[in-house]
Amino acid sequence: MRQILISGAVALFFALFGTPALIRLLAKRGYGQIIRDDGPSSHHTKRGTPTMGGLIIIFAAIAGYLLSHGITQTAMTASALLVIALVVGLGFVGFLDDWLKVSREKSLGLKGRYKIVGQVLIAATFGYFGIQFADNEGLTPISLNLSAVRDTSIVLGGVLVVIWIALMVTATSNGVNLTDGLDGLATGASVMTFLAFILIGIWEFGQSCEIAADVASGCYSVRDPLDLAVLAAALAGACTGFLWWNASPAKIFMGDTGSLALGGALAGLASTLRVQLLLIPLGGLFVIITMSVIIQTLYFKATGGKRIFRMAPLHHHFELKGWGEVTIVLRFWIIAGLCVALGLGLFYAQWLSLES
Description:
single chain, mainly alpha, two-stranded antiparallel ribbon, 12 helices, 2 strands, 67% helix
């Protein structure tokens, strides 16, 4: 528990006090946000706000994780290092996209197909190495079984696991990217989900089959749950520190650098903690916003140009209805919190069902 607190506190410190330095550096170089002309008109006042703030989130999270191990003199694990590699890889794809936008001074960065290819390749690599590195108990960071609130009896096998993880990571990273449209919205929702993963990691460690007195009592076979909780704490701390400067009116945006990395972190933690399908309720806000885009697109094509929402993603629909940005963010945070509570409730209820 001490290591979790250290990890979160260090990451919070680096993000809280490192973000102003990054803001000054980005502003000096003119790396400001490019606003789409077809977006809400109220967003034009945000033009020029420094972007690529995801760099400090990634740096602070890694610093928090590494320093917590150095201070407590504990070994790092394959599971957490793989998730970190996934975060860095997707953050790099997002950075390329952000860099092209600010250097060209256009709202279009990487072509969509190139971005997707990059995400899929990095996610598939994560999935492949995730089924390697078995520990003394034969546990690998990612299971060959499909997982819901724990591993199910559905065996996917090596190839299908890699494909499934690639789809899962790509979908989640794009979901967070779509949500990152209002000041603090995606950052705050991510904090809540990372806090849930801390609790899940701690619980799985306490009920691990390696230390449980009664193996038949619903114990968890997860390789490195406690160290993954440490990493989740670092990510939560980094996002919280960044949120101080990202809250409305934002002094900096995370950009695709941050949103793709955070989405990858969420999917990576869900995969390695073996709660893959539980990510749907835990990240419910991201799912809702992504579905609003899919529904809008399908309906637009099916009806020859008609729309269900005034604009997608969903938060822009409410902006065009006259809701204030802060009101939308707070109400969507409430939805995110309820989704996280639902996810944790399902996780605990499943364990109780095995105990009864």
